[in-house]
Amino acid sequence: MRLQFVLAEIGSGLRRNLSMVVSVILVTFVSLTFVGAAGMLQLQINQMKGYWYDKVQVAIFLCSDGSTAAGCATGPATPEQQDNLGKLLESPAVAQYVNDFQFESKDDAYKHFKEQFSNSPIVDSVTPDQLPASFRINMKDPEKYQIISETFSSQAGVETVIDQRQLLERLFSVMNAASLVAVSVAGVMIVCAILLIATTIRLSAFSRRRETGIMRLVGASKVVIQLPFILEGVIAAVIGAALASATLWAVAHFFLGGYLSQQYPDTAFISAAQTLILAPALIGLGVLLAGVSSLLTLRRYLRV
Amino acid sequence: MIRFENVTKVYDQKARPALDSINLEIDRGEFAFLVGASGSGKSTFLRLVLKEDRASSGAVYVAGQNVANISSWRVPRLRRGIGVVFQDFRLLPQKTVFANVAFAMQVIGKSRSVIRDTVPEVLKTVGLEGKENRLPHELSGGEQQRVAIARAVVNRPGILLADEPTGNLDPTTSMGIMGVLDKINQNGTTVVMATHDDDIVNEMRKRVVELRNGVIIRDEAKALYTSMIPIVGQSRRLRDASGREPEPAAVPAAGTGADARAAGEGQL
Ligand SMILES: Nc1ncnc2c1ncn2[C@@H]1O[C@H](COP(=O)(O)OP(=O)(O)O)[C@@H](O)[C@H]1O
Ligand SMILES: [Mg+2]
Known about the structure:
The structure holds two protein chains of two kinds. By secondary structure, chain A is an alpha+beta fold. In chain A, 69% of the residues lie in helices and 8% in strands. Chain A has two domains: 2-53 and 169-301, no CATH class; 58-164, 2-Layer Sandwich (Alpha-Beta Plaits). In chain A, helix 7 runs parallel beside helix 11. Chain B has a domain at 2-73 and 192-267: 3-Layer(aba) Sandwich (Rossmann fold), CATH 3.40.50. Chain B has a six-stranded mixed sheet, sandwiched between helices. A four-stranded antiparallel sheet of chain B has the order 2-1-4-5, with helices on one face. Chain B is globular, with a radius of gyration of 19 Å. Chain B starts with a strand and ends with a helix. Chain A binds chain B through residues 1-2, 5, 210-211, 213-222, 224-225, 304, and chain B through 50, 72-73, 75-84, 90, 92, 103-104, 106-112, 115, 151-152, 155. Bound molecules: adenosine-5'-diphosphate (ADP) and magnesium ion. Magnesium ion (MG) is lined by residues 42-43, 163, 268 of chain B.
């Protein structure tokens, strides 16, 4: 009976305050979408780390025609220099850090370049001569990049040593910054959501002060009096969180899974199913938001 | 059933206390009128019984329990034992007579079958048989107050507090309401009614506690609205918590009753 009563009260409260309830739903929807976007970026970063970290290599680029680096004063790398570098890589001092390595000639580089930018007009203006040959090294421990860099940078015929991992790190730091921005926007939106939920509950409590006054007088418990108001906010917030989860799923499914993975077939994008693990967190956060702000509001406006 | 021990209630430090060192005991099953002009402290007295407000000093006992010691989550239980009616009825306008009374049972978790059995019974007690499905605006003022009384007593409280229940009603209707309250009192409920309606008090011949400026100036059994016995000066208390009959007073306080009556015409 009491449960039925509480449910009926919630229903009438939601109907009576429909426009406010809709705005609570929208605000929680937007704020939790930003929270979820930050979460998705983090998932994507983890995904890419897992995918790339055992694939990334350290590349030793050899001097080519246009090289301006100090080590390239003598012009393009000679086959002799190239042999020396290969021997150095096989020497015990270096080999202990190296899993394996390949030599990528100018022609190989040109082939890879053409594959990578197949649908870009830039391909037509590049010739194999313009691309440097390189040694591609798979490290045993990618953290030991510094040793390779120190050993080879000063060798004759080496233009530069590049850690692909660092390129990735740069990408990740951009993504981290983006998720930080998303979190900040979410923070502001969450403050809005809390204030809006508090206002909604206050209005709701005001419009039903007759009922609650009588409930107090006849000795209804605090739970029976306050629960309908709290649940009203919680239900609206949960709907907002569900919408946010659905939006994130749609973005992952249609944008990442559809458009972006066609554009960048080599990149490991998170799957739509993975975004669903964010849903319980978002719903939990929504419940927490609504619960906390309604408790604070009711303490002031709905004394028992 | 209700006992006030040296109770003072101060709302505003700068103003005089709303109640000033009140000592009073109302026994189980008693019917007591609380009379006095507007602002004399009648409503404050009732609010303290309900623990709607806290006494500034002194102790209020309801059914033997000091209400100051009731924790906030047990206050609802205290209030289930006390019914209240007001001058303005306070019905829910969109609910029928039946639903208004049933509301008081629903919110404390009574089962539907108990509600179905009890509500018609109580409506019969207050003289509203056959009007279960009316809405409040389809009832006269007296009938609305009967609904409010039915709602106040449907959970069988030991105490019924009535704050000027006839304040909005004409004399004939008021007497009807008094009949209902008397009947409820006959069934064993302690009734405390704040009023400044002298005809009613004179008709009923019940105990009368008269307040003026927060002080009890008279407490008389089977009394009239105005005192038949001369009244002592305001500075002296007529009785303490244990006494029942007022002391015979030496100094007649001429015009006391007339003052109270004149002031009583004002609304709250
Ligand atoms: N909530 C309140 N805040 C401040 N003063 C109050 C409040 N309620 C009552 N008072 C004051 O207390 C005194 C007694 O009021 P009340 O108990 O309502 O008298 P009555 O019901 O006899 O008319 C009055 O002077 C009134 O102004
Ligand atoms: Mg009053």
